[in-house]
Design goal:
The structure is a homodimer. Chain A has about 200 residues and is α/β, with parallel strands linked by helices. Chain A contains 8 helices and 6 strands; from the N terminus they run αααββαβαβαβαβα. In chain A, the strands form 2 sheets. The first copy, chain A, has a 4-stranded parallel sheet. A two-stranded antiparallel sheet of chain A has the order 1-2. In chain A, helix 1 packs across helix 2 and helix 2 packs across helix 3. Chains A, B: This is Recombination protein RecR.
């Protein structure tokens, strides 16, 4: 038993399975927590416990919340007819941090993928189409990743909404703010060039 | 409130302060935990709680343990007269994983540092000298980091033990196993060259 106690070893093993961590970083984190155990570690344990019991998916949009319907879905100020479709809750959070979008969301929970046999029903796309119709949505922004699967999914949803009178848009592609051309992939540079605008 | 709930935000903020993590990696980890909350998150909360309450420093060597004296210090098979002095508990764990050392340890909890005003008393070096004398230690292995402060500390301890009859040794320096010369710093290459051995 190299690492202190059975509990410490189990804690390191569990931490090491978290995304981005491994045995080495898990050991460093656990040691740091033990050093300040009085405060941080107890607080972390309590928060993990309460988040574990209270967190669930918003029944409307799929955002993570501690109620049946998330704060965004029940905010009357956000019923502006716009719905932003994202792949993942992390993308919703990133958009909210940007504070540029004031409508509502729909989290797909993935993308269409022939390889992984994920079809429209697996992502609840029929339910999304119903929601767009029922809630009198006027614009659907497909904020999906600029990957092959993300763009395939965006095209599928855009086609399913054809003729419905809803405006379907996507995020602009181009050079990220602060981005150095030298470090961007060729596809991004070409897309930015094609979408060039007058200054 | 971009991130789900106040508890989730607090959890992310706390996680982001752990060594090697930041807001981005903390968000990814918390999202992954929420997705499998039933199992992993509750288990993690419980383990953190129990480690926080039960972990403490071994009264003899400074290792992390859940008893007054750690498993290494009470193992009669390890009373072989050898004591290995390390800077940090993480170093002790690393040596134990290597399974090459079968004696006991002493964790300094740091190194001598003029800059940070850390002297011999702050590291409990007088207590270490007493321990070496009382426990009839025959060899002291100074497994300190190959940094300036680590080596200063090693020299200080070696001098303090001069004339005591105890053999004082240090780890061999050289090319790590699998190490490519091209990627090593010059100091390591020079040290490995000076310590070259016949094949
Ligand atoms: Zn919602
Ligand atoms: Zn001990």
């Amino acid at each position: 038993m190299a690492e202190g106690s059975d509990d410490i070893q189990a804690l390191i093993a569990l931490m090491a399975r978290l995304p981005g961590l491994g045995p080495r970083s898990a050991r460093r984190i656990v040691l740091a927590l033990i050093r300040k155990r009085g405060g941080q570690m107890t607080q972390l344990a309590q928060l993990l416990g309460s988040v574990a019991t209270s967190s669930r998916e918003c029944l409307i949009c799929g955002n993570i919340t501690d109620r049946d319907e998330c704060a965004i879905c029940i905010d009357p100020a956000r019923a502006n007819g716009e719905i932003c479709v994202v792949e993942d809750v992390a993308d919703l959070w990133a958009l909210e941090r940007g504070r540029a979008f004031r409508g509502r969301y729909h989290v797909l929970g993935g993308t269409l993928s022939a390889l992984d046999e994920i079809g429209p029903d697996d992502l609840g796309i029929p339910a999304l189409i119903d929601r767009i119709r029922d809630q009198r949505i006027t614009e659907v922004i497909l904020a999906l990743n600029a990957t092959v699967d993300g763009q395939t999914t965006a095209h599928y949803i855009a086609e399913a909404l054809e003729g419905s009178g809803v405006a379907v848009t996507g995020l602009a592609q181009g050079v990220p703010i602060g981005g150095e051309l030298d470090y961007l992939d060729d596809g991004t540079i070409s897309a930015a060039l094609r979408a060039r605008r007058k200054l």
